[in-house]
Amino acid sequence: EKIRAGLAEEGNVVFSFEFFPPKTEDGVDNLFERMDRMVAHNPAFCDITWGAGGSTADVTLDIANKMQNIICVETMMHLTCTNMPVEKIDLALSTIKSNGLQNVLALRGDPPHGQDKFVQIQGGFACALDLVKHIRDKYGDYFGITVAGYPEAHPDVIGSDGVASEEAYKNDLAYLKRKVDAGADIIITQLFYDTDIFLKFVNDCRQIGITCPIVPGIMPINNYKGFIRMTGFCKTKIPAEITAALEPIKDNEEAVKNYGIHLGTEMCKKILAHGIKTLHLYTLNMEKSALAILMPKNSRTWQNLGLIEETKILRSLPWR
Ligand code: FAD
């Protein structure tokens, strides 16, 4: 079924897990084992990314099918316009439809490796808005459509000073509203580490009449280098207190991971305290941090939200 229904339930905090397609068959097997354990905690849905430039199309389609029909979790497949003529887009959509999937994250996609700028291919789409329109035109209400939102504006318009101008930010929001007006049901945000920026973004979206659920994308910090790479790529603001906390421990992997769990938990607590009831976890295909953030209150760790049962964690987590 479409995930919008699950997200709209009153009073219920829900969470979801994002995965990406591993490069090897062993990797895929491992991912399914992990996913199976994570799905035992009842996420509202899980999603699988579409490799940059369509590089993982077949693997993504296959994983999405197995998630929906073997792991039995409500599944959302990402789909991008990069290198995708409309025939290929339709092949992907009709494949997932015939496999019973009803949820798509419609994206423009990044330029393929080695290219700076996104280029619309012949017979393809220029932006996510085109893709949303196409899905609604051709498939009616069959699919639940999610789109990406950028609390700090899209990186293309973030300047060398690390911020977007007020005008660029406003244009970005107006464009996001067009994606919603064209038929998107849910917004999931780009990762961020300054929770106030996310809360302001939600407020700004509401001000211009975006009423759909806006789901914060939370990426627990798992390792220092990965964090620096990812925030550099996405031009994400790193608040000074996070830099100060990470600097002295950056070579201690375990300490960084624990800090990442602590930080992710505090961010989620603040978001939940503002009445937002959904959390989307970028797992990077790892289970420990995402689950630890959702752990029960009163567990032996100090980091916890109390959204999942500890008994289940004890049964399923190999690291205990
Ligand atoms: P769009 O919504 O099309 O737009 C990006 C920006 O371009 C807009 O914010 C706006 O500023 C500008 N723009 C575009 N068209 C117009 C227009 N007509 N008028 C005015 N402004 C316009 N990438 C992958 O390759 N695979 C994935 O699986 C994937 N998953 C993602 C999941 C999430 C939750 C997020 C946030 C990003 C993901 N990405 C993924 C990255 C994404 O593809 C890139 O950020 C890409 O550069 C933009 O995609 P988009 O769908 O946001 O683009």
Automatic annotation (TrEMBL):
Record-level Gene Ontology MF annotations: FAD binding; methylenetetrahydrofolate reductase (NADH) activity
Q: In which pathway does it act?
A: One-carbon metabolism; tetrahydrofolate interconversion
Q: Which GO terms describe its biological process?
A: methionine biosynthetic process; tetrahydrofolate interconversion
Reactions the enzyme catalyzes: (6S)-5-methyl-5,6,7,8-tetrahydrofolate + NAD(+) = (6R)-5,10-methylene-5,6,7,8-tetrahydrofolate + NADH + H(+)
Instruction: State its cofactor.
Output: FAD
Q: Which UniProt keywords apply?
A: FAD, Flavoprotein, NAD, Oxidoreductase
Residues in coiled coil: none
Bilayer-crossing regions: none
Any one GO cellular component localisation term in the record: cytosol
Source superkingdom: Eukaryota
Q: What does this protein do?
A: The probable reversibility of the MTHFR reaction in plants suggests that they can metabolize the methyl group of 5,10-methylenetetrahydrofolate to serine, sugars and starch.
Family per similarity comment = Belongs to the methylenetetrahydrofolate reductase family.
* Quaternary structure (record): Homodimer.
Query: What protein am I looking at?
Result: Methylenetetrahydrofolate reductase
Starting at the broadest rank, the lineage of the source organism is:
Eukaryota, Viridiplantae, Streptophyta, Embryophyta, Tracheophyta
